[in-house]
Amino acid sequence: VHQSKMDFFCKLGYGKQDICKVLENLGQEALEDDVLKELIRMGSKPQALEKQAQPSQPQLVARGSCGATLGLQWPGEGGSDPSDCLRPIVIDGSNVAMSHGNKEVFSCWGIQLAVDWFRERGHTYIKVFVPLWRKEPPRQESPIADQHILEELEKQSVLVYTPSRKVKGKRVVCYDDRYIVKVAYEHDGVIVSNDHYRDLQNENPEWKWFIEQRLLMYSFVSNRFMPPDDPLGRHGPTLSNFLSKKPVHPERKWQPCPYGKKCTYGNKCKFYHAERQHQGQLSVADELRAKTKGKGEQRCQCSP
């Protein structure tokens, strides 16, 4: 009861010291109207009214400058960079490009769409891994579309080629999935791919947990890169919390009971009851039992 009254009057803007004094004088069971009257009688004012009552001091502004710009701060001044709160992004370039090309063409435009999507959100650390042999001219069995995008992303230090070479006419390719998972794990980032990396999960138990918790799947809808709003399922974090180092949990908002005062669930009701805020939420059946029990005790006392 004390905490609920403290929260109520704090929301109105009164100071905690004044509220504690009034509650000590009137008692913890005092009604809210009596507490409010006593606060007004003491001369206590809400903080918003006190700020309005204080005379505003004139601010000196230099000639040739605008007073409205004095309070502005440029990014990185007086505070932390918003990009520091976002997780690093490691993109499986082959998976994204083949997915955008309907598993028929290695579409480099799909990689560009994914990179642009994360850049618009403010991510600064973005790495895309693609096998080195994708720099070779396209062949009939492995077509490539918009290959110039790979060169542009490489100049921007976004694209990283995994090594490959030819030995006696045969191409020897390093396992690019291992690069992707290792870099994402070391930087505590997010893997963007529709691959589950089951072989790497069985290889390293730490990677298994990391892949299960940090794998971001996606879809392409009309040349639009779209990750899900719930990457880990309905009961998991939102996409914003999934991609940030410091997730923000929303405040729980109680939904009012649709039955109102006619509700018979009592303390078992999961909805909010305004009329039961300062009283025990007993069900109707429990209240009747309590009343009958009290009457029975009175009869027992009167019988002698």
From TrEMBL:
Entries under CDD domains matching the protein: PIN_Zc3h12-like
Gene designation per UniProt: Zc3h12d
Annotated GO MF terms: hydrolase activity; mRNA binding; RNA endonuclease activity; zinc ion binding
Protein name according to UniProt: ZC12D ribonuclease
Cofactor: Mg(2+)
Keyword Magnesium: yes
Keywords: Endonuclease, Hydrolase, Magnesium, Metal-binding, Nuclease, Zinc, Zinc-finger
Family, per entry: Belongs to the ZC3H12 family.
Gene3D superfamilies according to UniProt: 3.40.50.11980
InterPro entries: Rege-1_UBA-like, RNase_Zc3h12_NYN, ZC3H12/N4BP1_RNase_Reg, Znf_CCCH
Start and end residues of each C3H1-type domain: 251-276
UniProt keyword Nuclease, yes or no: yes
GO cellular component: cytoplasmic ribonucleoprotein granule; nucleus
PANTHER family per UniProt: N4BP1-RELATED, RIBONUCLEASE ZC3H12D-RELATED
Zinc fingers (C3H1-type) by residue: 251-276
Highest taxon above the source species: Eukaryota
Originating organism: Cisticola juncidis
Pfam families assigned to the protein according to its UniProt record, in alphabetical order: RNase_Zc3h12a, UBA_6
